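Reopening this ticket.

The earlier resolution said the output was attached, but the attachment link was broken on my side. Pasting everything inline this time so it's all in one place.
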Amino acid sequence: MRWWLAFEGVLNRREKMTRMNAMSTPELMQSLGAQARRAAFEMARAPSVQKNAALKRLAALLRESGSALALENLKDLEKAAAAGLAAPMVDRLKLTPKVLETCALGCEQLAAMADIIGEISGMRQMDSGIRVGQMRVPIGVFGMIYESRPNVTIEAASLSIKSGNACILRGGSEAIESNRALAALVRQALRESGLPEDGVQLVPTTDREAVGQLITMPQFVDVIIPRGGKGLIERISRDAKVPVIKHLDGNCHVYVDDPCDIDMAVRVADNAKTNKYSPCNAAEGLLVARGVAAEFLPKIAAIYATKGVEMRCDLEAFELSSRHIYCAECY
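Inline output:
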């Protein structure tokens, strides 16, 4: 009986996928939205033990599926190379064993955290005798639109599960094969934990019209979270008919104070820039207090020079570092 039920479930999922493939993009997004809204009610009621079980199962699946994920990821990498994507962009697409292990650990760390859903704070009694407070509750359904990094699929899905929300994820077209494979693991983890697999859905098409549909469905989507470049976020903010949680411009700085441990500051500044160049949180600016500049700048400039990092300095910093700078532009 269990075997037959499992087999019947596989057939139902295949039939569902066939129907979705035959839909137009507006029909597809309406279907995803309706499914997410239904799933959101179940996710909101799910007990902590069930949500944590899904997260732990997802971590296990990520570790078990490394070879299969690598094959899907390779398809994206080959297409990216053929399309002439810049090396940093290609690097962002990679699902290395280290990246997958980081995702798995993140799921386990979330599972170990306390569940704040239902937590009440700020309770006070009014003059009328009514007690008023604040309760943490799920948002409902959020849509996330992101670029490049397929590991964001796991990050967004795991946070959605832990917080008792449902989500619709729209990753970049350059990572579609990787995202599909990862989303399938998420849905498997939800299903095996007794949660609705539609609690996390990936938009299965690369049609850009899907984004326009997703951000204009207030009947299904409660908030949109764009994660990407300035152009993407400006477009979402301009066209969305649902609330948007956004950032816009970013420029990551390292500040070296006076006084400080110079050797530690050198290690921090080096790591912040050269540990990995492609992430959006890699250091782009270095601000140094004048009192330690004469000692600090030559040391960090020498390290950056050996690693091919170009320093663009003001005149004072350039004069302190010029013997070591790989390449400089003064302004």
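Reporter confirms the inline version is readable. The two ends are 75 Å apart (CA to CA). The CA atoms of residues 4 and 10 lie 10 Å apart.
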